[in-house]
Design goal:
Rossmann fold, 403 residues, single chain, alpha/beta, seven-stranded parallel β-sheet
Length: 403
């Protein structure tokens, strides 16, 4: 199938052609006809499958046809980064069409709030918003959503994980009951099923590669003690000519520390975390996207918020807390049918978590040999650590790390 077979409006096809889009991905092939037929959808698809265009294309096409001048579509997302990226996708796809959009999220100055208020009052066609910021506007009573026809919940599982369940329900209470609702999620735990049952009407269901990293990802892991992680990381990064490398750590404190250590080692690196001002975060992402920055260090908040197709290497400096987060992290590479590498560092206390990851993805991840000069390697044996105190598994003093 090609996009021409979907018979989109000429203005939308011009945008697709300009962006080089020729063939829809599987999620797009399945979702677009259903959305054009005005049916509700609950769709489960891994990151990097093209789900953003799967809901944007049919919505933009319908806005072109109806020529609406009011708010037609509300897209709720968990993070400001994702809001910005969806807004950018709208600008690209609808470049030749009379369709307006705005991203609404916290952390901006007063002038941004006034711009958002104007769009919500006079009616931008597509609103992409984080829950808290949107509720701030809704509570003031001027949001004009009486003609809204589409509600899209993107990364629904992440929003619930971040505690936005009550906020989502409150937002929905403001919306017209007669609407088309589209729910997209990378995983489908019971709480998502509960949300769907309350929010959607007789939805069509789509499942694309649930709980599996993309086929193009080469996965591997190192067994390490904590003291070996930084030396191993710098050794892996030295001399790498990969244009874009993404490193995930478990907390913003660790992210800041890694940035300092890698800057000290003369790497082209920057960190992104919640303590940074929004304009700083935007600039860091811009540099990373434009290959002006080779290495980005981030927390899990970014695992679903970076829409860049050419990240060649993802390193999990820490094993993610939840098995599903591993899929989202490694899903940052091997996007759009490319290939990539994902490497995870596993310390003693994280072995059980990594075993859960292997169970979820249905494969055992290859364990690579730790370079001998970094000291004794940890043996992968998750069952041996069940119920035992971590202090019993401290690493022996390493051998001389000088070459």
């Amino acid at each position: 199938m090609t996009f021409h077979e979907l018979q989109f409006e000429p203005e939308l096809m011009e945008g697709l052609d300009a962006m080089g889009f020729e063939k829809p991905t599987p999620i797009q092939q399945q979702a677009i006809p259903i959305i054009l037929n005005n049916k509700d959808i609950i769709a489960c698809a891994q990151t990097g499958t093209g789900k953003t265009a799967a809901f944007l294309l049919p919505v933009i096409n319908k806005i072109i046809q109806t020529k609406t001048q009011s708010i037609d579509t509300l897209i709720i997302v968990p993070t400001r980064e994702l809001a910005i990226q969806i807004d950018e996708a709208v600008q690209g796809l609808a470049y030749f069409a009379p369709v307006s959009a705005i991203a609404i999220f916290g952390g901006n100055d007063g002038s941004s709030f006034e711009q958002e208020k104007k769009a919500l009052t006079h009616g931008a066609n597509i609103i992409i918003a984080t829950p808290g910021r949107l509720i701030a506007h809704l509570n003031m009573g001027y949001v004009n959503i009486g003609n809204l026809t589409h509600l899209i919940l993107d990364e629904a599982d992440r929003m619930l994980d971040m505690g936005f369940s009550d906020d989502i329900n409150r937002i929905i209470s403001f919306l017209p009951k007669k609407r088309q609702t589209l729910l997209f999620s990378a995983t489908m735990p019971p709480k998502i099923r509960t949300l769907a049952a309350k929010t959607l009407t007789d939805p069509e269901q789509i499942n694309i590669s649930v709980s599996k990293p993309a086929e193009g990802v080469m996965q591997a892991a190192y067994m390490t003690y904590n003291e070996q992680k930084l030396p191993l990381l710098t050794e892996l990064l030295n001399g790498k000519k990969i244009a874009s490398i993404l490193i995930f750590s478990s907390s913003k404190e660790k992210v800041k520390q890694l940035e300092r250590e890698l800057l000290r080692a003369k790497f082209n690196v920057a960190a992104i975390h919640s303590d940074l001002l929004q304009d700083v975060r935007t600039e860091v992402l811009r540099k990373f996207k434009n290959k002006l920055l080779q290495i980005l260090v981030a927390t899990d908040i970014m695992s679903r918020g970076i829409d860049i197709d050419s990240i060649g290497l993802v390193i999990n400096y820490d094993v993610p807390r939840d098995a599903e987060d591993y899929i989202h992290r490694v899903g940052r590479t091997a996007r759009a049918e490319t290939t990539g590498v994902a490497i995870t560092f596993i310390n003693p206390e994280d072995q059980r978590k990594f075993k859960s990851i292997e169970k979820l993805i249905g494969n055992e991840v290859k364990k690579l040999d730790l370079p001998g000069h970094l000291g004794p390697a940890l043996h992968y044996n998750p069952a041996a650590y069940v119920g035992r105190p971590a202090k019993k598994f401290n690493k022996p003093r390493p051998q001389n790390t000088r070459r």
